[in-house]
Amino acid sequence: MILGMMPFLKGINMVATDIFWVGLGGGTGSLLRWWVGLAVSKLYRGHFPLGTFLINVSGALIIGYLSALFGIDWRERYGEWLNAGLLTGVLGGYTTFSSMQLDAANLAHAHQRLLASGYLIVSVVTGVAAAACGAWLACP
After folding, report:
1. Which of 46, 69, 90, 132 would be a feasible disulfide site paired with 138, CB 3.0-4.6 Å?
2. What is the pLDDT of residues 67-102, one digit of tens each?
3. CA 134, CA 111: separation in Å to the nearest integer?
4. Within a 10 A sphere around the Cβ of 3, how many other Cβ atoms?
5. Cα–Cα dist 19/41, whole Å
6. What are the sequence ranges of the domains in the chain?
7. 26 CB contacts (<8 Å, ≥6 apart)?
């Protein structure tokens, strides 16, 4: 077991292939987030952090869809690499909670506290709705 020497990881079964797939997927998801953010910033110049918002909502929709599509037996049907690489890696790297918080802090610092608060509320509510919609779309 890799990382077994760290006591706080005792009982966690993490092997080199898991680390590889999460890392590869995370890098891919981060590059996708960067690319989408750049594309949105070329088309939209407003104060609302539209790029981060669209990234998080689309990521929530996709993860809701895939989680429902493959159900609780995701690992058994499709293997660890797909779960580690796609759900944890790509979608974990693509979506960005920390950037959402930074965007809100920057808005508040620029004396746009109402927009910052609205952004956080709308982001969370829309993200949950998108994940639910994704799950609904996956169910026949």
Report:
1. 69
2. 888 875 555 555 677 778 888 899 999 999 999 999
3. 35
4. 12
5. 32
6. 17-138
7. 88, 89, 90, 92, 93
Entry pTM: 0.84
Both tokens assigned to 82 = 């797909």
Predicted confidence (pLDDT) per residue in 11-56, tens digit: 666 678 888 989 999 999 999 999 999 999 999 999 999 999 999 9
CB contact at 8 A, 129 and 136: no
Q: Say if residue 29 is exposed, middle or buried (CB neighbours under 10 Å; 0-12, 13-18, 19+).
A: buried
What are the binding residues? 92, 95
Q: Which amino acid is at 27?
A: G
Coil, helix or strand at residue 110: coil
Residues placed in the known binding site for Na(+): 92, 95
